[in-house]
Amino acid sequence: MRHRLDAAISSSAEIQHLNKLETLLEAIPDGVVKVDTAGRLQSTNEAAQRLLVRIASDASEAKDILRPVRATSLRARDIQGHLLTADTTPITRMLRGETLSGQHAPIIHFPTRDGQELYLQISGAPLQNEFAQTVGAVAILRDMTEYMQRRRYLEEMLLQGAIEQRRLRAREERARHISALVADSSYSYQLRVDGDIKREWTTDTFSRITGYMPEEIDRLGWLNPVLYHVDDQPAVQARREALLAGASDVREWRFITRNGEMRWLRDSCHPARDQVSGFFHVYGAVHDITSHKEAEEQIYQLSQQLSVTFAAITDGVVVYDRDGRILQVNQAARELGAFDLIANFSTLPLAERIQLVQMRSDQQALPLERAPFYRVLHGEILRGPQVEDIFITALDGRQLCLNVSGAPIRNLADEIIGAVLIFRDMTVRRRQELRTQHALDALLAMAEALVHSTEQVTFPDNMADQAAYISRQEAVQHLLSLTRDLLGARAACIVTMEPEAHRLAPVAVMGLPGEQEERFWADMSRAHLHDYFQPELCELLLAGEPVLLDMAELPGINMPTYGMLQMLVAPLHIGEQCLGLLAVDAPSVEQEYPLHEALVLLKVIGKLTALVIERERLIHERIIAQARALAESEANRQKDEFLRLASHELRTPLATIRASLQFTRRKLNHLQEQTAQEDPLERLEEMLNRGERQVAVESRLIGDLLDVSRIQEDRLELQSKLCNLLDVVRNVVADLQAGNMLRTIRVIVPEGEDMIPVVADVERIGQVLTNYLNNAIKYSPVDKAIKVYFELEETVVRVAVCDDGPGLAQEVQTKVWERFYQVPNRIVYSGSSGLGLGLYICQKIIRQHYGQVGVKSSPGQGATFWFTLPLALS
Length: 874
Description:
Residues 654-701 form a coiled coil. By secondary structure, the chain is an alpha+beta fold.
């Protein structure tokens, strides 16, 4: 048949079955058609096309010729001559569920296009899907025109014989002669009132079909049940009763020929009563339909094979009609989508079914027009590159990845009447691909950890061993995090192990609750390998093999299990040495990987972790050596720089003091020698003032050194009390203004504020402000005013000293707070640059007051140094 099934059937065996079926159907002399529920043709063989095209007014209408609604326009009649209606056509009866076969198969008269007549016997049965719903029908069209012409002719002859008894023999001879000329076998016998049958004549064809000579039939007896299959004997009795009642009868039965062969015969007989004798003259015709029945049986067997094959396919196969309704679904598809959980799932609209299974692509909901069924029903063939993976949620909640292929089903007019889709479950393979990709990504990340160095780690003084340990712990912590993500483990840990004593030392742990983690660090520091592992497991671990540890069978007494039942443990093995162990929670891992895969993967991770630990150890040894050398070099540099600064800064005031004292001594010795115009006391007072100022400078430098020493030893004590910050600032400014008469220092007080309460050490805050102001005096021109202003916030007060000096570059603004740091090439307008300790001490003092320090400056724009203090709000 011309049926578009190749797109729907993927296996070669199914295609071979289809080819056999098509060849068989084309070989059948009768027409075979398949119609949908509306009576439209879906497929036909060539014999059917030849018959139907004779009825249709043109070739384009042949596909709708059997539709019930066409019955009236075709002027079709049954054998009794009644016009057919839409409700009485054979197709309508089959679509209502009737099976038309044997005597129930009607013969219909159709006028043909060329004005002739066509008699078709229409037999067949409805087609049902797996839900017992009628989805169409299959009908067999047998051309009975010649038979009906013969029958009509015989009936006319019989009628004329009944009227004209005298011409009966002549007519019988003529009928016998005609019957001998046709392919069907004809016969005539006389049936007496008492039921006795006497042959009158038969054709040679009858003898060829049955194998019996007429005389042999006479001896055996006509309608003898032994001549028929045992299952057809009730039909033989029904034939006898029909003839005795004077009724025509048509039967299909199995006749046992003389050589024992079983042949299917279509036997039609028509009795005519002799009004004189009361006997019936029976005229009949036999048609050998054995090949037709064998073809039907082959079709049935092929249909059964296709049904069994359809059900046995491991992929889900679903057949849709052109509206997207499910016509047929195999068991694999039912189980895949759990469709049986919703009784009417197959009858739901296509869009609703898509919504129920949450069809999506790349985690995005799949629009209806992109759904595979929609695309196929609109003409796409999904195969090769067009095959698409989609994700659905089965009706039982399972998340599935399906590979969907399919093709449309077309009728003879090349119209799409449905679709076949094949769903292959790719969930396991998809999960394996993701798992493999995840494992590869994690292993690559671990490999990167082997490549990337951590040489920028800063180690505290005299704590090289602790710093190395901390650095190693951070690197291993990263590896442990990657391991947990890769294996999906709930908890994991890494411990190192002493080579000889096999004593364990915890390095990293993840996934344990807080209390259990604290206990882990404490317990594991006292544990040995044999506390957790039996001797045979110890041997495997020391040999570099991973093991599965049952926490219920620990050799140690009362060893903590941390709520875990089983653990996967891999050694951290390098060469012949076991550096430690990597352990993860087994039950959670087994949800992601089979046990053997998890052990192999953990072994690889253990080797990578061991390499990282060993690399970290070697790197840290080198870093520690470099750090020590660098620290010694920096210490020597700072010491030399400090000695240079100290010798210069301390000698300068001393030289001034010495010169002032020498000058004073000379003035006293030559006091009497001075002229009257000179004022020696004024000159002496100036020298004494200079000496006092240098003594103050010397005292400040020594004080700075003492403060730095206290800070380093954490002995900088504060005498805090509640005070008015405005008064503190005013007093400091007044003192500095008195010693620097040429400078202008402006204090800008917030409007309406006469008190800013803080809890602070007044002397230390004054020391900070003095340092800020002295720096402003040193590094700004004499004619430029210095401003001190306040900013009140919710809980703190900000004090800022602003000058119009050369400013600071961005890169040195953080360095000025470091010990001994001095801005290079900076212009000093008055005084000396100092030891580079002032701002360092200011920062420490303010931080002890829970405040902050900072600077805002740009080159050429001056500088603003500020500090904050908490307000005393209560």
